[in-house]
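$ ./design --mode recover --in tokens.txt
reading tokens...
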């Protein structure tokens, strides 16, 4: 049995999942990040700048530290930037015990190459299914769902499947029209597409209910038909 076959994690929600459209750790995100910290009962956030491995991940770490300290929380940054580092036993054990984990923005394809079928990804899932908070922004938000919007052209590839049959289009409000149209047109029939604006979160609670938070809009697509949800709105069409 391969590691990825051991457990099917795609069913019942147990922790809190936050899919952020990008622009994480800004003033417009403070309200929902405070709510996430409260939901986790956490005074420390584990930040993985993996997706930003080629974009000065040390700056991501500094920004996260400054931001969460202003919210009264500490940050533990794990510089897991290569595939081999996702098998490090100490990092894996630390993540498994974490109450709040945040995947930064960057390259979803690099993030997938590091995390897919890794011991670290299993630990992230274990934390989430033990009641923790898993937050992911931009690249992270599209990767943790399945299918995943491919940044090379707006078509689809395989994501990591925390939520199945849900595709996330980050930076939705500022995206190029041709990329957004391609993702709409190529969406698999059994999947839903959500466009999430920058500084905006789509949050699933432990009972499986979805809601929006932040300064922008979450747009749910059914073909070319759309439903827009602003902060505080329930997104009932995503519930099973």
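writing sequence...
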């Amino acid at each position: 049995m391969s590691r990825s076959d051991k457990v099917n994690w795609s069913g019942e929600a147990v922790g809190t999942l936050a899919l952020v459209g990008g622009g994480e750790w800004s003033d417009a995100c403070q309200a929902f990040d405070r709510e996430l910290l409260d939901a986790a009962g956490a005074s420390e956030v584990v930040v993985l700048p993996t997706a930003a491995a080629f974009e000065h991940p040390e700056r991501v770490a500094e920004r996260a530290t400054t931001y969460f300290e202003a919210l009264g929380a500490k940050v533990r940054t794990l510089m897991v930037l290569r595939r081999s580092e996702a098998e490090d036993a100490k990092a894996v054990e630390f993540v498994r015990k974490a109450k709040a984990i945040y995947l930064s923005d960057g390259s979803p394809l690099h993030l997938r190459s590091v995390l897919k079928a890794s011991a670290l990804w299993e630990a992230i899932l274990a934390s989430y299914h033990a009641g923790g908070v898993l937050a992911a922004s931009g690249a992270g938000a599209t990767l943790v769902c399945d299918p995943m919007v491919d940044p090379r052209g707006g078509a689809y590839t395989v994501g990591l499947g925390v939520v199945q049959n849900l595709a996330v289009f980050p930076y939705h409000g500022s995206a190029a029209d041709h990329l957004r149209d391609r993702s709409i047109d190529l969406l698999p029939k059994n999947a839903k597409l959500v466009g999430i604006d920058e500084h905006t979160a789509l949050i699933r609670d432990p009972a499986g209910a979805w809601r929006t938070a932040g300064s922008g809009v979450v747009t749910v697509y059914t073909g070319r038909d759309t439903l827009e949800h602003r902060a505080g709105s329930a997104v009932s069409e995503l519930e099973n």
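exit 0
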